[in-house]
Structure to design on (496 residues):
């Protein structure tokens, strides 16, 4: 019975954590819906007065980006801003032939009168954070705009973001990501679905009430003084953006989130690329919880509600670990439910936590209908997308849980870049991308075993107990079976 009760306790704790996270999402939805858009009272730079136009540095941190450098530099060169007030830094840590071709491209742009510099390091100390810090030493700008290699800001991007820095308390202006290749595949659609929820519900919901948000690593602008006041970039976590964001807000800098300003970017199109990105984001989130949790708790200048949202924000990636725990233990729990009649009251209580899924369903619907529409057809498509997204997200839970565990344990690892494709130029020839990781992770084989495990869970629904089966968890096990099966199959077949 010790084992039985241990399973029940661990299962219950994981369910309760998921429930509280769902409640926080519901609160963010309430914040999101209550936002009153009133920008008329906000102080802004008057760009019709040349004296009010500040000097800006655009930083482009790149590393072995052969397929997208031409597109990136061409796009950035078209940014509408006075050339005398604009500097572009290409922070290039590349070790392949792209270093030489980028140098040629930069030389061509210099001849047009663009103030663009090529900053190359002899080593990757600190990875992206180290490159940004190196560039900051010589940056001319009062404000630092940052774009990853796959982001394509529109021509008027600086004119839509920089004016908000008239308010001297604002340290960061962050814009919303949009997706160049959203419709490429199921994988890109579910990534877009998740990111859209973050960039609408979460960023607006937190920012509108003064809770902590994060600079998303790209498509945003920092006040240089804010970076320095917060302690500058640090490379001791895999999400240096989240780290600096919290350090800045703990020093009372304000962040401004612009939902209506989109910055298009490319989503990972191959599952190995998505896996590396997910691993870095989730491990970095756990590392930052370890680094920042006590600083948030002990800070006397922020409200209790902001602290709760901040902690849950930092624990966002740990959700995957709780989902994995609930998933794996759900099959022994199915057995326990049907073999130990005296525990039935507990299972009646636990059924209440199904409401977590309903909360997520409602919250994501408000995000979805704003982007796609709210007709009956849109709602039916949303139902399909929601269950597809949840299934595949659960299929990633083992991989992401390993990242979270490593982060909480303090295991260090390199910053693994996400391969870029520029699919518009290369059509479907992504298999020739030299940066793709062709190795199969050991976790993939365990994902295959979990596919079989949840298939077994579906079978148990027909035979467990003596009442002709128990189908209460069948939909859950079906989603897990499909999700793990998708991740396993794609990881095996998309590697060559």
């Amino acid at each position: 019975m010790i084992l039985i009760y241990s399973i029940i306790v661990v299962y219950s704790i994981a369910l309760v954590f998921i429930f509280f996270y769902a409640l926080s999402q519901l609160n963010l939805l309430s914040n999101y819906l209550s936002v009153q858009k009133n920008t008329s009272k906000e102080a802004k730079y008057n760009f019709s007065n040349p004296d009010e136009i500040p000097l800006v540095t655009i930083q482009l941190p790149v590393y072995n980006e052969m397929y997208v450098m031409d597109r990136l530099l061409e796009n950035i060169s078209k940014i509408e801003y006075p050339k005398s007030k604009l500097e572009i830094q290409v922070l290039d840590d590349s070790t392949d032939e792209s270093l030489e071709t980028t140098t040629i491209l930069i030389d061509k742009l210099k001849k047009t009168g663009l103030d663009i510099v090529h900053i190359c390091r002899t080593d990757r100390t600190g990875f992206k954070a180290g490159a940004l810090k190196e560039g900051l030493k010589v940056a001319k700008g009062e404000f630092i705009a940052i774009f990853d290699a796959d982001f394509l800001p529109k021509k008027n991007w600086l004119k839509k973001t920089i004016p908000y820095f008239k308010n001297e308390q604002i340290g960061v202006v962050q814009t919303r990501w949009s997706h160049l290749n959203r419709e490429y595949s199921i994988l890109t659609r579910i990534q877009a679905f998740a990111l859209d929820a973050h960039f609408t519900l979460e960023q607006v919901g937190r920012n509108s009430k003064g809770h902590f948000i994060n600079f998303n690593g790209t498509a945003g602008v920092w006040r240089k003084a804010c970076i320095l006041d917060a302690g500058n970039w640090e490379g001791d976590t895999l999400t240096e953006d989240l780290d600096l964001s919290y350090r800045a807000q703990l020093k009372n800098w304000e962040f401004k989130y612009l939902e209506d300003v989109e910055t298009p970017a490319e989503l990972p199109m191959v599952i190995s690329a998505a896996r590396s990105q997910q691993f870095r984001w989730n491990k970095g989130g756990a590392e930052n919880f370890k680094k920042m949790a006590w600083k948030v708790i002990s800070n006397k200048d922020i409200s209790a509600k902001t602290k709760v949202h901040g902690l849950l924000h930092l624990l966002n990636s740990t959700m995957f670990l709780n989902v994995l725990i609930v998933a794996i233990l759900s099959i022994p729990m199915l057995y326990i439910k049907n073999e130990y009649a005296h525990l039935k009251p507990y299972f009646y209580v636990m059924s209440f936590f199904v409401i977590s899924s309903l909360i997520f369903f409602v919250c994501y619907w408000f995000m979805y209908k704003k982007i796609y529409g709210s007709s009956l057809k849109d709602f039916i498509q949303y139902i399909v997308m929601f269950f597809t997204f949840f299934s595949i997200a659960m299929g990633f839970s083992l991989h992401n849980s390993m990242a979270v565990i490593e982060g909480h344990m303090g295991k260090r690892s390199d910053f693994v870049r996400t391969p870029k494709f520029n699919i518009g130029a290369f059509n479907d020839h992504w298999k020739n991308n030299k940066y793709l990781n062709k190795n199969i992770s050991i976790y993939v084989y365990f994902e295959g075993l979990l596919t079989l495990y949840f298939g077994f869970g579906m079978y148990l629904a027909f035979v467990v107990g003596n009442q002709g089966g128990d189908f209460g968890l069948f939909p859950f096990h079906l989603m897990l079976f499909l999700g793990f099966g998708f991740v396993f199959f794609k990881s095996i077949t998309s590697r060559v």
User: Anything to note?
Assistant: The chain has two domains: 2-32+317-493, 46-270. The chain has a mean pLDDT of 92. The first strand starts at residue 56 and ends at 62.
